[in-house]
Q: What sequence folds into this?
């Protein structure tokens, strides 16, 4: 039997960083960040054009979608 | 009036307010507006305890460690292996001293929240978490620029995506990497310590308020004080967890700055 070899320990040095290393916080900050940034830009556009929250709503939706896209890109696969 | 003296006075102000966090000066000869409060004392004590403990524990290192040395080595070994190396990789060893200092300092500062007669954490004043978060913030930005030069901006701000979506994504990356990070670090630690102290105040003072209002409520008061004891144990878990989370996130930001592209 090939029982003479030392047990194969996982080599910590070569592993990528732990998968759940703050990934949740990153995801939340992308989601909220997306909506806040583009919602905020939309709010400025509202002020500039005199519309009442239309641009801010569109901005928040676009920002939320972009946040989801970023999460998929940075954290997924 | 502070929470502690209020309890002794037995006619308690209820509910507790933010004012309960602003403690009076404790210098016997100084006026009421002297800057030396219990918070200052606990800060100095934390630093002194940590320095003296680690110096004494490592003064004559033994091959078979005694209790002090075992404790000190466990703390350092835990931060080095389970946080620094695990998150950053081999390079992480050179950040282990800072991360271990950060971890034990935050833990000690938080621990005052449940030590009898102190029972408020200096970290429930946002100034302390802000400074700690600023150090982490400056550190990961500095490390990023030192490692990648100006290319760090590309790594940090430009995600792998088609060019026509980038104008939408780059502001979000900037916001979440450079603005949200220090805020969330500071506020997470501050809010946990603030809420922990507030909870203990509510249940302790609430017990007195009820027993003063109506003697028939005495059993509920006792229940409230039992809750205080249970919440103190919960607070201990949160104290350790928040010290760990702050250190892990700092390590993860450092890792992000040192990583080779995406």
A:
């Amino acid at each position: 039997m090939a029982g003479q070899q030392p047990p194969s320990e996982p080599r910590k040095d070569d592993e990528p960083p732990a998968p759940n290393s703050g990934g949740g916080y990153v995801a939340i900050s992308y989601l909220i960040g997306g909506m806040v940034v583009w919602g905020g830009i939309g709010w400025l556009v509202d002020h500039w054009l005199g519309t009442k929250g239309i641009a801010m709503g569109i901005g928040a939706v676009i920002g939320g979608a972009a946040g989801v896209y970023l999460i998929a890109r940075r954290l997924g696969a | 009036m502070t929470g502690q003296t209020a309890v002794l006075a037995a006619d308690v102000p209820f509910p507790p307010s933010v004012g309960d966090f602003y403690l009076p000066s404790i210098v016997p000869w100084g006026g009421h507006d002297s800057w030396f409060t219990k918070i200052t004392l606990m800060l100095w004590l934390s630093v002194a305890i940590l320095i003296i403990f680690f110096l004494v524990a490592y003064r004559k290192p033994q091959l078979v460690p005694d209790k002090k040395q075992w404790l000190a080595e466990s703390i350092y070994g835990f931060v080095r292996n389970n946080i620094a190396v695990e998150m950053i990789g081999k390079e992480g060893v050179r950040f282990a001293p800072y991360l271990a200092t950060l971890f034990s300092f935050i833990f000690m500062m938080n621990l005052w929240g449940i030590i009898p007669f102190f029972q408020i954490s200096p970290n429930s004043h946002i100034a302390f978490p802000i400074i700690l978060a600023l150090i982490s913030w400056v550190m990961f930005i500095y490390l990023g620029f030192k490692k990648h030069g100006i290319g760090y901006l590309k790594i940090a701000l430009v995600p792998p995506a088609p060019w026509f979506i980038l104008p939408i994504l780059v502001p979000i990356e900037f916001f979440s990497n450079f603005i949200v990070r220090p805020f969330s670090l500071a506020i997470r630690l501050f809010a946990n310590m603030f809420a922990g102290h507030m909870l203990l105040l509510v249940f302790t003072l609430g017990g007195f308020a009820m027993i003063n209002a109506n003697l028939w409520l005495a059993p509920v008061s006792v229940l409230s004080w039992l809750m205080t004891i249970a919440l103190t144990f919960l607070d201990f878990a949160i104290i350790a967890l928040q010290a760990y989370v702050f250190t892990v996130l700092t390590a993860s930001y450092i890792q992000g700055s040192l990583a080779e592209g995406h």
User: Anything to note?
Assistant: The interface with chain A takes residues 85-90, 159-161, 165, 168-169, 171-173, 175-176, 180-181, 184, 248-249, 251-252, 255, 262 of chain B (CB under 8 Å).
